[in-house]
Design goal:
The chain has 128 residues and is an alpha+beta fold. 28% of the residues lie in helices and 28% in strands. The mean pLDDT is 93. The protein binds coenzyme A.
Length: 128
């Protein structure tokens, strides 16, 4: 597939909502205006004019960044687009001086993030 990738592409919330609704039917709209001020960068994948993948990199303002909301449209999965998004997110974060890139995920996504090069670590999670 002729997929192109962009850093910080201008997106409409509607495009992103459509991509998310593809996987999480009934999911609420993206809180775009709240999310983006905390974003180091975001990477998108495009098939022509169609948005087919997205990942957001949130930032602590220093050397830590956090992968959030990795998603590839259902019809485009298992074509290395997800890995392509995460690899570019890591490259862009490194270029911007980030030293540690974090991600957390459910069990079924462990093989994906392992394939993207993430090593296991101990982490904590508190449901508020
Ligand atoms: C997770 C997701 C982004 C992966 O995107 P993708 O483009 O299909 O992934 P890739 O093709 O780049 O996969 C790279 C490798 O990761 C592993 N992998 C990917 N998806 C996998 C799955 N569902 N189960 C097991 N391994 C998987 C494989 O090793 C794969 O390589 P292979 O296809 O040569 O075997 C996609 O499945 C998705 O959008 N899921 C729903 C949203 C979601 O849950 N996001 C995570 C939020 S943390």
């Amino acid at each position: 597939v002729g997929i192109s990738y962009q850093v910080n592409a201008s997106l409409t919330a509607a495009e992103l909502n459509a991509l998310r609704a593809d996987h999480w039917p009934g999911v609420g709209p993206v809180p775009w205006d709240a999310m983006m001020p905390h974003s180091l960068c975001w990477i998108t994948a495009h098939d022509g004019d169609t948005l087919v993948g997205f990942v957001n990199v949130a930032w602590d303002g220093d050397i830590h960044a956090f992968i959030l909301d990795t998603i590839v449209a259902t019809a485009y999965r298992r074509q290395s687009i997800g890995a392509g998004l995460v690899r570019r997110a890591a490259e862009e974060a490194r270029r911007r001086g980030i030293e540690w890139l974090h991600v957390d995920f459910e069990d079924d996504l462990e093989p994906f993030y392992r394939a993207c090069g993430f090593e296991p670590t101990k982490a904590g999670l508190l449901h508020l």
